[in-house]
Specification:
125 residues; mainly alpha; 9 helices; globular
């Protein structure tokens, strides 16, 4: 995969590029917005750049494009592999803002009780 492998490797070597990739989230082009998320997939698994990951993720909650919502959930799920408590806290904090598709992807690795409690908390807010 181009973005997770190539762009992710560039981010490891040149961390200053993170600021540029954050701007991609505001692009009118859906594929550029999606790239702003998936470029961090492999890094998220290792717990790298989590601050930037959560910032980009939150900035795209209002995006109605299904492919963006799925990529966002995928990125959050991968970030959760490195720090599950941080992901859970982030999801609970932003519950009402998170599109259902994004949330479903993000929590699919949680056990059933945890998924239900997060979905219930989203509805209550």
């Amino acid at each position: 995969m181009l973005c997770p492998d190539s762009v992710g490797a560039l981010l490891v070597r040149f961390p200053e590029l993170v600021a540029q990739i954050k701007t991609w989230a505001r692009s009118p082009n859906r594929w550029v917005r999606r790239a702003s998320l998936v470029s961090f997939i492999r890094l998220a698994r290792k717990g790298d750049y989590l601050d930037a990951i959560y910032e980009i993720s939150a900035s795209l909650f209002a995006d109605s494009d299904d492919l963006i919502q799925k990529a966002n959930g995928w990125l959050l799920r991968e970030a959760g592999k490195a720090d599950r408590q941080r992901l859970e806290k982030f999801l609970l904090q932003h519950g009402p803002e998170i599109p259902r598709t994004t949330l479903r992807y993000a929590i699919e690795r949680f056990d059933e009780k945890k998924r239900e409690s997060i979905l219930l908390a989203k509805r209550k807010n």
